[in-house]
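The data layer described in this paper is built around a simple, fixed record for each protein. We quote a single record here, exactly as it is kept in our systems:
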Amino acid sequence: MSFAVSTLFLFLFILPGITFKRAYLSSVFSRKLKFSGILDEVFWALFPSIIMHILSYLLLIAATTVFYFDVDLKRVLSIALLQQDNEMRYGDVFVAYMLYCTFVMTVSFFAGHACRKLVRVLKFDRKFKLFRFTNDWHYLLSGEFLDFPEVPDHPEEVSFKLVNALTSVGSQQMIYIGELIHFTLSDEGGLENIVLKDAKRRLLQDDLTENRYYEIPGRYITIPYKTIININIRYFYLEEVMGDYGDEKLL
């Protein structure tokens, strides 16, 4: 088998690992992984590929017993990868190998999404740094970082978040205060903008004056992250208080 064909078969063998990684990191807060070198890149391509091939092989074996069809997967892989046959037979197994790789990539795609959802549902990314995604803004602005083991506060549920954002507007610095109701993350792993509800604003130079906050017309305001100098976030959660008033009546 020629070097080009060997490279093609090897690439198709590794492709399921790449597919799994892309599916696993398909959320806006998990676009990237932090790699320390080329070995990490190889590991994240090769190791998931091996797992996906094993999983797909077991699924095919199970399918043959249920749907009563026959597939000689060992022969296809041995010819395609191990060159254990006459060179004229590579064309015969190429289509079968392509169909097999398509099946493995399909399994890898759904497995990647399923693994990400499982990590999120079980909160593994909050409990263990190993599973934590790279965009810290998501955890910070959503309040999920309060579940981190290193954070002392652990409210059961954040009811609302109050934000003080210091921004640069022209030559002046403006402070916005309001309830954070939405934020947009960028594909590069950063923050795109924040949306505040019932926000007020004031100039930083008016910090010590009375009635220093000014109402903003409209209920919502969007603040681009590129204008933000720093952000202060306060988390609030509400507790239901049951009062026993006896025979008294509320007026």
